[in-house]
Specification:
alpha/beta; Aminopeptidase; 14 strands; single chain; about 300 residues; globular; OB fold (Dihydrolipoamide Acetyltransferase, E2P); three-stranded antiparallel sheet; 2 domains
Length: about 300
């Protein structure tokens, strides 16, 4: 019998009155466990009767990618948070999980997807819109962290177009598919709902669990699913910091290298040298901004790092 997981554990709390349907995900990447621990804590509160759902429903998936979680790695066969869509023919484990996950996303109105990252940095929210009239933006601002990153799909689609123009031969043909940038939040929006990804902090920092647990409680409160003491509908007093992704840079060769120990939000100035290709070509910042999501483990053909600019 295969040692691959054959199921997902899904927990649902149903209110006795109608209301919004919230989905909370942990461990979409198997080595990012703060969401798992936070979900376990919140579920314990429901089970002990310390909280009650007033209306609507909340569904928790503590371990969204059980194969990667079992291995303690980011991915099982591939990155679950890319090219997420239902597939009649499943080529790998993440395709099979994706079919279940897409159904769950379509059944809900709101998504909170909990992640963490490698290098030390403050928590931040990946958001699709910063329009003050947007319900997604108001939801994102209530989660806790006041640093936001936007522009994912626009930059990713531009990266796909660049790869196509270059006629690159890639080990993963999905990298030439505009849908490759679609993850949990993008798929949720395509179903008519809204959602955000919360990057809670560094993987091993215990505070990431606190950030994730507060965000779950704040999400439930924002949607009116629970009551919290001292509830207010006001946006946090701290002025939000908004960064917009402007460009994705792929790794072309295993010998491509950074010139510094970059981490997300490392500032750069126009013309600053960021990295070198294996043949000596330089990659420099085109404008003031910062580095985002640098990956020293990126393989050739895959995204290596991003440039972003501050909007506020």
């Amino acid at each position: 019998m295969s040692d691959l997981p054959h199921s997902l554990c899904v927990y649902r709390q149903e209110g006795l009155a109608p209301g919004p349907r919230l989905l909370v995900l942990g461990a979409v990447h198997g080595n990012e466990t703060c969401g798992t621990r936070a979900i376990e804590r919140v579920l314990g509160g429901f089970e002990r009767g310390e909280r009650d759902l007033l209306r609507g429903s909340v569904t928790f998936v503590p371990i969204t990618n059980p194969l990667a979680y079992r291995r303690g790695t980011r991915s099982g066969d591939r990155n679950l948070n890319r090219n997420l869509r239902p597939k009649e023919i499943t080529a790998d484990f993440e395709d099979r999980v994706g079919n279940v996950l897409c159904r769950l996303l379509a059944e809900h109105d709101v998504l909170l997807d909990l992640h963490s990252f490698t290098a030390p940095a403050a928590p931040f929210v990946m958001v699709g819109s910063t329009d003050p009239r947007s319900i997604e933006w108001r939801f994102a601002q209530r989660l806790g962290p006041q640093r936001f990153v936007t522009g994912w799909m626009e930059v990713y689609e531009a990266g796909v177009a660049r790869r196509r123009r270059a006629g690159q031969q890639l080990d993963d043909p999905g990298l030439l598919d505009a849908g490759y940038g679609v993850g949990t939040t993008e798929y949720m929006r395509s179903c008519g709902g809204y959602g955000v990804t919360l990057e809670c902090g560094q993987h091993d920092d215990p505070e990431t669990v606190e950030v994730a647990a507060r965000a779950i409680n704040n999400a439930l409160d924002f949607l009116g699913l629970i009551e919290q003491p001292g509830r207010t509908d006001a946006v946090a007093a701290t002025a939000p910091e908004v960064l917009r992704l402007t460009e994705v840079i792929d790794r072309e060769h295993a010998a491509d290298s950074f010139v510094s120990e970059w981490s997300s939000f490392s500032p750069v100035v126009p013309g600053e040298l960021v990295a070198r290709r294996h043949d000596g070509r330089e990659i420099r910042a085109a404008s003031s901004g910062c580095i985002m999501f640098p990956s020293r483990l990126a393989t050739p053909g895959h995204e290596w790092f991003y440039f972003a600019r501050r909007e506020s």
